[in-house]
Amino acid sequence: MGLFSRSQPKIKVENTKKDSYSGWIKCSHCFEMIHANELQDNLNCCPKCSYHYRLNVKQRMNLLLDDNSFIELFTNIMPKDPLKFVDSQKYSKRLKAAQEKTNSDEAIIVGVAFVNSKKVAIGIMDFSFMGGSMGSVVGEKITLLIEHATKKSLPLIIVSASGGARMQESILSLMQMAKTSAALTRLHKKRLPYISILTNPTTGGVTASFASLGDIIIAEPNALIAFAGPRVVEQTINQKLPDGAQKSEFLLEKGMIDLIVKRDELKKKISFFVDFLMHNPKDITSEKMPKRLKQLLKVAASKKTDEHIAVKANKKNEQKNQS
Questions:
Q1: Would 248 be classed as within a structural domain?
Q2: Number of domains the chain contains
Q3: Which of 75, 133, 214, 323 has the most CB atoms around its CB within 10 Å?
Q4: Does residue 112 belong to any structural domain of this protein?
Q5: How much of the chain, in percent, has pLDDT values that exceed 70?
Q6: CA 20 – CA 23 distance, rounded (Å)
Q7: What tens digit of pLDDT does each residue of 183-218 get?
Q8: How much is the pLDDT for 272?
Q9: 206, part of any domain
Q10: Maximum average pLDDT range among 59-63, 239-243, 318-322
Q11: What are φ and ψ of residue 58, in 5° steps?
């Protein structure tokens, strides 16, 4: 009888308490052990190194919006497979699997809501839906949201988390870059503010279009923000990228974004910017905008309270009206 043809004794393995899930996980950034409950209580940020893990749409809503204030818009638009695209499997099957996984129709949810009692038009991308890729429905919903904000004179907020344009829709996805950008031009002409929030990751056609066109661009710490990923760039130019390149801290240093805000401070900062820009619409399109924006960001990064800032801004407006 050959060695490998012998029947092997079957060893029965019994699950013990130690084998079961204990709730402890290892941080992928600092490799420290943290408990899942502790991570959840800390807004999905590692309590050891403050690494920001991804949030789903519901978690993002709970973080940024007032309770029960969100009303979803344009729910009748559904994705289809006009090109009958097939790679390792049919695009239609990928869509169905993503919808079942996320319980969402597409990679973005748009609507109106309140942020500290201030009404806004908001779109939140979901990276867990096919990598947050932008197809024709995502682009259409963003465009309709921008047009709704323009018509109703609402400030616009878009939270980006995307791998870029959806390759299964080819040119139909690429044209969304131009469509969303054109809609933002019309919003800008009406002097309404657009705050773009970049989370990890924001790449590809999303970065190259609406995500980079905000009047104020905010990023979460250590977020990957790029057109092509670091591996693709290194293989193309045959050079090693600098440490931290394409991270939000690197982009802030180079002037590509306006500020980095930790997750627990994000709602407060958005509320401040919405309040300031809606009461000072001329500043958005004035020639002095870069200087004013720099002053504004400096104030926002300070430890002053929203109440103190609002009182000071109101006094300045009263003085201007009197003069």
A1: yes
A2: 1
A3: 133
A4: yes
A5: 80
A6: 9
A7: 999 999 999 999 999 999 999 999 999 999 999 999
A8: 94
A9: yes
A10: 59-63
A11: -65, -45
